[in-house]
Amino acid sequence: MEKKTLKKKYDEYDTDDERKKNCPKKTKHEDWVRFVDLTSTEEVKASRERNKINRSKMLTPHTTGRNGVFRVADEMMEVDPTITRSDSFLVGHTRSDGTFPMTFLEEKW
Question: Region (Disordered): which ranges (predicted)?
Answer without folding.
Answer: 1-26, 47-66
